[in-house]
Amino acid sequence: MRAPIHKLLLVAGVLGASLAQAQTPAPQTAAVAPDAIKQREQELEAARASKKSAEEAQAKLKAEITSLGQDRTQLNQQLIDTAANVRTVETKIDEAEARLRSLNGREQAMRSSLDSRRADIVEVLAALQRAGRRTPPALLVRPEDALQSLRTAMLLGAVVPELRGRAEKIAGELGELVALRKTIATERDQLAADRDKVRNDQTRLAALVDERQRQQASREKDLDAENARAVSLSRQVGDLQGLIAKMEQDLQSAAKAAEKAAEAAKQAEAKAAANAAANAKTGPGAFKDRSRTTPAMAFAAAKGLLPLPVNGNKIRDFGGSDGLGGVQKGISLASRPGSQVTTPCDGWVVYAGPFRSYGQLLILNAGGGYHVLIAGMERISVNIGQFVLTGEPVATMGSTSQVASILATNASQPVLYVEFRKDGTPIDPGPWWAANEGEKVRG
Q: What CATH number should be reported for the domain whose range is 2-21+34-216?
């Protein structure tokens, strides 16, 4: 029986050390050991292999995108699918980080509990040490070792009943701590894998967006001049309604977009009047046609079908306080830094650029007198006059809040502002969001 007690005695001063995770620093050597040189060579070789793999992946992606050619339908499909993948993984990362925060909190609480009972643990281990009649050898530092020693001693009946009960309680807590640490390690591994995946998807998405804009530029020869003129015109107006009117009146590409939106709205209304029943059955399936060049349905008929444009938490709702003594005319969504922004609806871009306190602002003409305004992004990836589909990637969030008028409680968190307007008047966007979009949205 003495041998297992000796194993248990290895734990005698161990719990205090394991709870604090104390470690003795390794002695420094004057010269680099051969093993260290070999390790560095292996790391260098791994870096070269990683670089080669990345280059091969880039070449494969470039060839894949080139094969799409001028097929806008396939390009749209790839853009929307990849953007959806990015947002799905963003959600998984948010959820994993939340679980890790909870698990880390539990681990800290357990460690604090054990640490607060250090005197009791020392008393138990001291009694075991006396039973062993000799001082234990060098201390262990891993909770797993402490747990194994306790279990071994108890199974072999090496402790008296009273001491056994106290040891069992300590062993139970250590077992929970060990299991918790394994769960944390698994979560961290999955989180690392998800982060790698989102980086790969973001690389793919960036290449697809570049190709889309290249094709757009080949069709619109004066895009740079139009964009510069749009920014210049935006400085001449003081409010959003004035900006929309100015763009759609004075800017050629925006005027064309507005004209197409008006024509599409009339066609949608005529179709609805001709066959109301068929129009009512359209539903989400209407958005599956990636070749469309006009909205899938009239904006007014899209209630309950539109996705929110970014993953995040709704921090301000339509009609609430804007934090500056006024009333919120849209909704504000706090997002992760670098989050992907997608279009909530079909429409034509009538403005894309900076505007006063809104930071980077994107305005879509959805037809039928409806406009959708999205502000607070760091970078916009579409041009004025361009038609975009629901779910298509159009912008990227930055690392801090870009919109002065909608600063969140935590001003360092990026915030996206979304506003719907009908004939120039802000309206509640709530009825348009899909049923699964709640107060806490995708993250």
A: 1.10.287
Side-chain half-sphere of 5: how many Cα atoms within 13 Å? 20
10 Å Cβ neighbour count for 43? 10
Element (H, E) at 67: helix 34-68
In the predicted model, residues of the chain with pLDDT beneath 50 are: 1-30, 133-141, 155-159, 277-281, 408-409, 438-443
Summarised one tens digit per residue, pLDDT across range 338-390 is 889 999 999 999 899 888 888 899 999 998 899 999 999 999 989 888 899 99
Joined together, the tokens standing for residue 329 give 């005319």
SS3 296: coil
Instruction: Give me the chain's average pLDDT, please.
Output: 74
Closest CA to 341 of 288, 285, 299, 391: 391
> What pTM value is reported for the model?
0.64
> Do the Cβ atoms of 348 and 387 come closer than 8 Å?
yes
124 burial level (CB within 10 Å; 0-12, 13-18, 19+): buried
So where are the chain's domains? 2-21+34-216, 238-441
| Residues contacting residue 58 through CB under 8 Å, at least 6 positions apart | 203
Q: How do 415-422 and 425-427 pair as beta strands?
A: antiparallel
In this structure, is the dihedral angle defined by the CA atoms of residues 172, 178, 184 and 189, taken in order, positive or negative? negative
Could you tell me the CATH superfamily of domain 238-441?
Glucose Permease (Domain IIA) (2.70.70.10)
The C-alpha atoms of residue 247 and residue 433 are separated, in whole angstroms, by: 27
Structure-token pair, residue 127: 């009694």
